[in-house]
Structures are given as C-alpha cells and as structure tokens.
Amino acid sequence: MSLPELAACGGIVVGYLTRRLQEWFKSQRQQPVASRKDLKDCKDLEPDSFLEFAERAGRKRFADDRWACVTGIVFGDEATNLLLHAREWNFDVLRFARLPEVAGRPLLVLGAQLLNNCVTIAQHPDATPEAMLWPSTHAAHPYADLCRRLVSFLGEIELGYLNNPYHNNVHACDVMQTMNCFFETEVFRRMGQEQLFFNRLVALMAAAMHDVGHTGQSNPFHVATSSDLAIMYNDCSVMENMHVSSAFQLMRQKPETDWISSFQKEFTPTNGKTPLKLQARFRKYLIQMVLATDNAKHAEQVKATEAWLQTQNWAEDLAKDGKEQVGQQELFLLEVSMHAADISNPTKVPSLSIPWAGRVVEEFWSQGDLEKKALGAVSMPMYDRDLKDVPGSQIGFINYVVVGLYRPLAKMMPEFEEQCEQIEQNLKFWQSQKNQGKKELPPANDWPSAPHPAPSSSLHLPPQRIVFANNWPSAPSSLLQDGRRRDQQ
Predict the structure, then answer these.
(1) pLDDT of residue 267
(2) Mean pLDDT for the chain?
C-alpha cells in the first residue's frame, strides 16, 4: 500500500511505522544484543530497573533502540567531540548521523541531548514547570514520565521518515538542532523561565515532526496530480498538514508517545492570573509552527516580519505575551524561526551547505522524473535533470528566499549578522561556479574553506560537558558519563 493510500485511510502512522520498526529490528540482528530470554525478562521492567539491567549487561546497543539514548550509548571520541558542540550553528549533522554509535537514528540520539536543556531550565529556581505536569508515577522524579514519553515520541516519529535524498530523518535532526540555536539568542533568552521551558520544548518537538512522512515531492506536485493527500487536505499546505496530522495520530494510537498528556490541561503562570489551557496551547503551537514551514507562506512571513520590526515596541510585545492565553507575537516569532531553521543550509559553512545542496537537487530531479511521466513535462527547469544547473538553482534560492528572511532576522537578532556574512560568501562561490560555466555539484576539493566562527559569537558556545539522557530524573547516577568511553574510565 502506498503512502498516500495509507494517509487516505487514516492509518499512515500505525501501519507505516510498524513496518519501519520491523525493518529496523531486522537490520539490527547482526548487532550485539541481549539474548531472547534476557529481552523477555526485561521487557516489562520500569525504567529504573531497565537502566540497572543495561548497566549490568554492559552492552553498546539494545534491540529496542527506542531506549538507546536512555540506557547510555557508549560514545567514541569523534561522537563526543561533535556532541560537545551540539549547540553551535555549524554543527555537522551529516557527519553525526553516519557515526556507528548513532545507528542511523540521529533524531532520537541528538534529540535526547537537546531535550536535556529543557529539563535543566525546568529546574531553574525562578521556574515552576513542575506544576505544569500531572503527578508523576515516580514521586521522587516529577519529570520521569515526561522524559520517557519524549524519548518514545522521538523514536517513533523518526521511523516515520522516508528514505528521501533530502526530506528524511537527518534533515529533521538538522532543523531541530538549528532551531535549538535560536534559543541561544538574546531575544529568546529574555523570555521568562516558564516561557523558555514551554517554547524550547514545543520548538524541538515541532522541528522533529515537521517533515514526517514526506513523500519527496512538493505541494504543487500533489495538487497538480490530484494525489490522495491533496484530496484529503483540499490542496492547502498538503505536506505540512499531513506531517502534523501524522504526529497527532501517532500520539493517539500509541499513548506511550503522547508527551502532551504529561501536562495539566490548565496552568496558571506565576506572572499572570489568567489560566493557560496548556494542552490546547501545545497543540496550537505545534500546528502553527509546522504549517509555517510551507514555502508558499514565505513572502507573507517576510513582509510581516519587516512590518513588525518597524514598530517601536516589538520587544515589549514578546514580554507581554507570557501573560496572555496565547501569545500571538511570541508564536509568530517561533513560526518565523522554524521557517528560518528549515531553510538554513545556505547560512552554514561550505562543508555543510554544499552537501545539502546536492541532496536537495537530487530530490528535485527525482520529482522532475515523475512529472515527465505524470504531466508530460517538468513544472520548473530546476526539476529537470537533463538541464542541470546546480549553481543557478542555489543562487536563485539564496537571493529570493534565504536573504529575504535572514536580513530582517539579523535586525531582530544581531547574532545572525555572522550568518548573513556566510550567506554572502556562499553566494559568491556559487556565482563563481556559474561564471565558469559549471553545472554540476562541485567536488569536495573545490569547496572553499571557511574559518571557524569567532568564539565571541553567542551562536558559537564554549564546549560543555555532554549531559546524557540518563541524567534526567529517574536515571541511576552510576550511569552518568562525561563523554568518555566506559572502558577508558
């Protein structure tokens, strides 16, 4: 059954993810795992007991990889060095995804690292996120249920990504990591602790799910071919509506992934008297942030951002939003940031931006092949692999999409001046390639070298100790690792 057919019958998550999970288990049969008897014995154990079982066994990977980042992956030196810089703009997600320790699950493994920041924020003396949660079954560890569901959600949602050249789980991981960098800017840091906890959590989850089930074709393609998905979503943001719907279907069908239900339905923040409909707010933010990644809304977003910046009190608008039931300006900032993270590849150094350019054009050409069969011709020249012009497509994308959004963002967040400079350098490189008459993706030895970002940049933070997901409440302290191999301790 095809993916559109699964979507049409409402079973996209259940049927597809189950099959992908089975395929994953099959692919891991050659990995060192527990015996069938051991797995049967630990199947129904509580997380604490499972972690203790993992520590005693001392294995590197388990058959049920959804627990991998909770049971303590043994990171090698390369993985450790990468993770120490996971909060930096030019983090190499492609390299991270290829590491054997990651086992093809970068969204799950890196996501657990980034989510730890949310737990750290929640423990701030000025924050009261604990009051947002339903009482935990682990009385001593109020965040245990939430952390377990977040990990389960990441593991299951990653299985829903198809093996497309570009729109795959690595891209989702890249957007999630980039979105996390936005919270290192002064604009986001000025938010109250409760706002920061909520917004960071919802942003990471929105990024993780923003392209789940992507078929590898654009919205116009689905509309032009009257696909089942286009019919289901009435030609409106077809892919984006499917992504967010699939994620909520997952949480309904598999309650262990429903992290939203770990929160109270209503919560009264410390800086306001109006109770927030917390679960409804999570849903609203997730929907709006994923829908904001539709490139058809790009011009509207740029225009709205520029208009907002022309007002004298845009910063005050954000401060006031924490007291309202739904902060409209706050939500708009998150929407724009999500879209910016989604199109951020040309803002990064050549060693990152060029490989991503190769992936996206390959996906474009695959769509062009389908268009020739279904429509008789390609809808745009950049989709035709017989008319290859990689430099031309990158120049157009940078000039008409990326620059238009990042320039106003840099006015709001001065930290992005560095990214604007990188955009200009990348643009000059592609222009030089075009001037030389080159049409293909340049080989690695032709890529320009780029200096490492200045340490003074707030988007280039000093290395920090890796905080494993085991450091979340309920993890035995004996499992904590400082980014070192167990056999080196």
Answers:
(1) 79
(2) 77
Name, of 126-135, 245-254, 323-332, the range with top average pLDDT: 245-254
**CATH classification (class only), 3-265+274-288+471-488:** mainly alpha
Report the run of H or E that residue 444 belongs to, with start and end: none
pTM of the model: 0.79
Helix residue ranges, H only, 346-416 = 350-374, 390-397, 403-412
CA–CA dist 280, 189 (Å, integer): 24
Give dist(CA 155, CA 106) in Å, integer. 10
For 398, the token pair is 């940078």
| C-beta separation of 391 from 433 below 8 A | yes
| Catalytic-role residue among 167, 171, 214, 460 | 167
Catalytic site includes residue 167: yes
Q: Give me the residue spans of the domains in the chain.
A: 3-265+274-288+471-488, 350-446
DSSP, residue by residue, 211-253: TTT--SS-HHHHHHTT-HHHHHTTTSSHHHHHHHHHHHHHHHH
Closest CA to 5 of 228, 249, 240, 245: 228
Residue 14 has pLDDT above 60, yes or no: no
